[in-house]
What we know:
The protein is an all-alpha fold. Helices cover 73% and strands 0% of the residues.
Amino acid sequence: MSTLTPAKANTTSATQAGARRRGKSRMDPTRNNTAAGLAAWLLALLFAAPVLWMILTSFHSETDAATNPPSLAANLTLDAYKEFFGETSGVSPWPSLINSATASILSTGLVLILAIPAAYALSIKPVKKWTDVMFFFLSTKMMPVVAAILPLYLFARTVGALDNIWFLILMYTSMNLPIAVWMMRSFLAEVPVEMLEAAQIDGANLLLTLRKVIAPVAMPGIAATALICFIFSWNELLLARVLTGVVAGTAPVFLTGFVSGQGLFLAKVCAAAVVISLPVLFAGFAAQDKLVQGLSLGAVK
């Protein structure tokens, strides 16, 4: 029968203690991942709670929606949605929704047509002092819109462009163009130079290079830029509120029409907000994969 000397016993104990520490350290990442996952879910529920509450309130009557504290067990009804779609009021939201879709889609298309060549000149074929150009684009977003709304209103009234959807499209294009140039510049900077050199050797001109070479590679970035510009245009309220009226009024302007100081309106406003938010949600889900790729483009070298 063999016995361990004190030195060997100490060595064995130290080895076992080290193994236990290593085993514990191997378990820590799993526990950390679980805690991080739970924290992420709680944070997501925290951000989603107001949206879920808005949806639930839209199915309540005005009396139940105005109770304090609100009741979760209140009867559900579609009266607010019937009011929004004009079944009881006789005012249809479809002209405003069509105006919002027209202004958002056309302005986004114009922004991409202008931003892609500008980003090409600032990234792939850099112009002199391109940093000054980028700062100029950024500086246009520093002035609050409310500071320019009066000159814009006076100009639109002078040229007869008030309550005109095409003037609103022009305003949305100028509003989103600096953001699009900044985003597209970072996306196009990731296009391999070898592909452009191969296109030049094959005799491709600028338009063909943009359409056949750059656009397919930068499509995730283009989709991300288009979606963000569409969301900004769809949600814009101040310009539409001041520069439009009955003919060119957009969906956010139509939504504010439900706010009244003479009666209950919370359920109708929630119903209108839910319906007006659906196009943005559908666009986001449709371009989800492209959006993730575009926003992460260039993040990993």
